[in-house]
Amino acid sequence: MELEDLSVAEKAAMLSGGSEWDSRGNDRAGIPSFVMSDGPHGVRRQLGEGDHLGLGASKPATCFPTAGTVASSWDPELAEEMGEALGREAHDLDVNVLLGPGLNIKRNPLCGRNFEYYSEDPIVAGRMAAGLIRGIQSNGVSACPKHFAVNSQELRRQASNSVVDERTMREIYLTAFEIAVREAAPMTIMTSYNEINGVYAHENKHLLQDILRDEWGFDGMVVSDWGGSNSAVAAVKAGGSLEMPSPGYTSVRELEGAVAAGTLSEADLNARAAEVAKIARLTRTEGVGRDDLLANDIAAAHHNVARRVAEGSAVLLKNAGAGIAAADATAAATAPVLPLKPGTRVAVVGDMAKTPRFQGSGSSKVNATREENILDELHNPETAEQTGVTVTGYAQGYDRQGVANQSLLNEATALASQPDTDAVIAVVGLDERSESEGLDRSTMAIPQVQNDLVAALVATGKPVVVVLVAGSPVELPWFDDVAAVLYVGLSGQAGASATVRALTGQVNPSGHLAETWPLQYADCPSAGWYPAVGRDAVYREGPFVGYRYYETAEVPVRFPFGYGLSYSTFTYSNLTADETGVQFTVTNDSDVPGATVAQLYVSGPSRTVADATAGSADSAKSAVAADARPGVLRPVRELKGFAKIELDAHESKTVHIDFDRYTFRHFDVDVNRWATESGIWTLAVGANAEDLPLSTPFAVAGDVDAAPANPALGHYLTGDVKHVTDAEMATLFGHEVIAPGKPTTFGVNDPISSWVDSRGFVARTVAKTLISREAKVRQKTGAPDLNTLFILNMPPRAMSKMTQGMVDSAMVDAIVSIGNGHTFRGLGGLIAGYFRNQSANKRIAKELNHD
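Request: output the structure for the sequence above.
Response:
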C-alpha cells in the first residue's frame, strides 16, 4: 500500500511520536517506527520509556568533548572523525536519528547551554557542524542539527519570543545552519522552542519553507524540540514534519478535524508524512543494536578518538617564565613553564583534578564508558617514565559547592610550599550547577573559593599552572599572576590524559578560541538586556555579536576571537589574492613541530579606507565619518575562512583559503535577497581577530554599488550598541520595537514561572513552591533540578504535548483558568475535559487499529 492510500488519521498519526523517543510507523504501508536519541557529544540511548532531560539511566557510550570545546580545534576533519565514531555507536545502539549537533550562536557567555554550541561566529559553527554531520551520517544514521533557530537563552526557553531584525537573523543566526545544510545534507533538523518575531519556530513558514527548503534545498524531516510544538495544524501547513514526544492522539484529532473542515489541505499532510516515512526507510538499524559495546575494541578505539579530539582542542592561554630547571636566574625568569621539563616535581591541587568534570548537565549528559582524572594520569608510571615529571602530593584545595573552607586552603598552600615542589598544577573552573540545559549562568565568575585558592598558591612563590575547566568564558582575576593557563573546556571522558599529554609536551597545544573572552561580563554587548525576563528577547545589539562588537567598538578583551598559543612560533608572509581566494605562507620558526589556525577576515567598503593606508592591518579601524563610509552597515571585520595547518620544525607551507558564497555577501532587506557590494575591500590574514600581520586591498565586482549607510542608524555605525536609542533600533529593525509589560492575565503560552504574579492563591503557591524546590535541590545536590526547571519554563500548552495524550488543548484551557485565579472553574473544566479526552482518544485508537 502507498502512503497516499492511508487514511487521514493514519497519516496524521505519523506526524507525532509514539513514545518519548520513538516515532509512529505504519505496518500497512511498510513504514517502521524509528528511534531518536540525544547525542551531540555522545549517544544517550535511554533504557525503558526514558526522559528528555538526561535524568534516567542510559546505556554506556563514549563521552566526547562538547561542541564548545571541539570548536576550539578549528578542525572540521577532526569533527568528522568524531562524528564517524558517534554515528557508529548510534548505529550499534539501534538509534536512527542522533539529535545534534547544536548550532546556535553564542550571543552571550551566560547562556547555560553554550557548552553545547560551537561558536559566536557562523562560519566556524557551520563548518565544524558540517564535519560532524558528515561523520555521523556515514553510518546510515541521521544527524539532526538544532535548535533552528535564534535560540539564545534558557530562561523562559519554551515561552520566549526572539525579536531580531531580518538581516542580523540571516547573516548571524541562520548562516551556520545554512552551511551545515548545504555542505553536509543532514537528513533531519530540529526546531527550537522559542518564537521568532512572534511565530513559533515549528510553525514558522518563513524559516521552514521559504529559507530552509526553498532557498537552501533541504529535503529532510523537521522535528520539534521535545514539547516545542504549539499547533499541530499550523506546523503541518508551515513545514513542521514531526512533533515529539508523544502527545497521544490529541494532534491526530486536530489534524483530522482540520482536513475535514477544509482548513488544512491533504496535500500538506501527505508532504509531511512522506518526510517522516523517508527517514524511517533511510535509517534502518534493526537487529544491529547490541549490549556488548564495552566488550569489544570499539570502546577502546573511540576512547582514543575522544582523546585526540581533546588534544586538538586544548587552548594554551598563557605560558610565561617559571624559574624551573633553568641553568641560571636569567634563563629561569624567561623560560616558559610549559611544557613541564623532565625532573619537574609538581603538586596537584583542586577537587576537579581528582573528581573530573568533563561534560555539562541536561539532555546531552552521557553515561561514559570510562572516566579519567588528571591526578591518576600524572601518577601513571608510564607517564612518569616518558616525561620525567613526578607528583609530590595532592590537595583538594576547595569545596566543590563553593563553601569557604580554610583548612582545605591551608593544606594546599602547605603542599605548594614544600621544598620538593617545583610547580603547582591547579585545576579550577565551573562546577556542575553552572552550565546546564534549562538554566542560564548568573555570573561569569568561577566560585570565589577557587579564586582565593589560586591567589594563595601564587603567594607561595611557586609557579602556578592553571588547568581551566569550563564550557564557556569566565573572568580571570588572577591571570596576570600565574605562570601558565591551559584551557581544556569540557573535554570528554579522555580529557584528563589529553591534558597531561599537553602539560608534559607529548602534545603541542593547537587550539584557538572560537569565542571572545571579555575582561568582565559588563563588557559584553548584550549584558544590559540578557537574559530577557519577559516574553520578548529583543536582539537589540543587531549584528554586533562577539568579536564583531569588541573589534568594532574597540573594547579591550582578555582574549580575542581566534586566540591560542603554542609551544611553537609561527610567522605569516607572502599574501596574494585573486578571484578564487587568498594565498600566503606560514612558517614554523621554532624547533618544535606544531599546528596553528590561519584565519581570513574581510572588511567591506564601509570599513576600508580608500587611500594609501588601505593595506595596513589597522586601517579598517580608522576613524571615518559615518556619512562618508561607502557601503552598508558592517562590523569592522568578519571571519570568512580558516585552515588548520600542521608544520614540522622550521617548515613552511603555502596555504590557500577559497572564497565562497559567504565571503562578500550581505542580506539586502529592501529587496529580500543576498547582495554583494562593488568596491575596495580589505582582506586580512593572521592568527586571531586582533593579530593580522598580512592584509591587502581587493577590488570586488559585486551586483550592487556601495552607498553610504543610513545615518539614522546612529550608534550602530560605530558598533556602540550599548548606547543605541529606540529610534536607531527601529531603523535597524524596520519597525518600532515595543516590549510588552507584565501580563495581567495568563495564556497558554505564558510559562508556569510567571504564575508568581497571579491573582489566584493556588497558582501563586504552585509557582513559588516550584521555584523554592529547585533552589533547595540545587543547593543540596550541587546540580540543577532539571525536571523542576523544565516545568517552570514550560507554558501550559506544552502539557498537551508532553503527557502522551492524558491532557488535550481543552484541558490546557482549564489549567490556564486556574493560573488566572479561577481555581474552581478550572478544576471543573479539567475534570470534565479529562473524560471527554479519554473518550476521543479511544475513538482514534479504534480507527487506527481498524477495529
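Residues 113 and 213 are 27 Å apart (CA to CA).
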